[in-house]
Amino acid sequence: MTKFDEATQAIRVDETTYDVCLDPGYAIGGPLNGGYLMAVVLRAVVDASPFEHPVSTTAQFLRVPVAGPARVEVEQVKVGRTVAFLRARLVQNGGTQMECLVTTATLTDGPPAYTDQQSAVLPPPERCVKLPDPRPESGMTLNAQMELLFDPPTIGWLTGEPTGRPESRAYFRMTEPQDPDPYVLALAVDALPPVVFSAGARGWAPTVDLTWHLRALPAPGLLTLIGSGRLVHDGWFDEEVEVRDSRGRLVAQSRQLARVGRG
């Protein structure tokens, strides 16, 4: 079991309830990363489902959970022969922190009947760059759990030179050696800095709603994350992320609605 597996494990209490312990190592200046929270909930959902993989997840982030004990409550909405629909709540201190609707199925690793081309081409990893290590007092503990190698233009905001377009692109892998799986993908779809940074905004940009799809089981190796946005308006922005595995296959895609950062 890797550190990530341990940080996302869900312990079954009964048919509908799971105990979890939210790990402070996945924080972004205080709040826990949304992808990490989804991975925790999905551990419980998949255990409660007759199928192996979370092929579609919609999460609404109602509050900001804190590190420590919590529970996941799972309800089977409908179970068919090849697909199951489940509802899950992350509950902490008596309040619902996050609600999810999850569709599960069992994917196979056969060749695709059709796959499109990657929407953007990144330089090779050796020509990409890391963000500077955050100061210990920043509370950015998430950075230590994963390695991101960025396409240089998409982090120009660090030096006051944003591209003016909502975009972010990077290679991704866990710091501790681990082959990507659906739970790692749940983290990966929310691992990039908000694409609105490249459009000139700064500050914490809380996600309100995020939907992602598991499209295929990823091959071992680096993941490629390509993030973009279509509209920044009235304090809101959207963010789309496609995730490609080391073979170039599309393995996950997401869309989220978030608030433009303040401060």
Can you give a write-up of this model?
It holds the Pfam family 4HBT_3C. It comes from Nonomuraea muscovyensis. Residues 25-107 form the Acyl-CoA thioesterase-like N-terminal HotDog domain. InterPro entries: ACOT8-like_C, Acyl-CoA_hotdog, HotDog_dom_sf, Sec_Metab_Biosynth-Assoc, TesB_ACOT8-like_N. This protein has 263 residues and is mainly beta. The chain has one domain: Porin, CATH 2.40.160.210. Helices cover 10% and strands 37% of the residues. It has helices spanning 3-7, 34-48, 182-188; strands at 11-12, 17-22, 53-61, 68-79, 84-92, 95-105, 146-150, 167-174, 207-214, 223-228, 232-233, 236-244, 250-259. Strands 1, 2, 3, 4, 5, 6, 7, 8, 9, 10, 11, 12 and 13 form a 13-stranded antiparallel sheet that branches. Helix 2 (34-48) packs antiparallel against helix 3. The longest helix is centred in the N-terminal third of the chain and has 15 residues, at 34-48. The chain is globular, with a radius of gyration of 18 Å.
How would you summarize this macromolecular structure in one to three sentences?
This protein is mostly beta strands.
Give the tags.
Acyl-coenzyme A thioesterase PaaI-like protein, 263 residues, 13 strands, Sec_Metab_Biosynth-Assoc, Porin, mainly beta
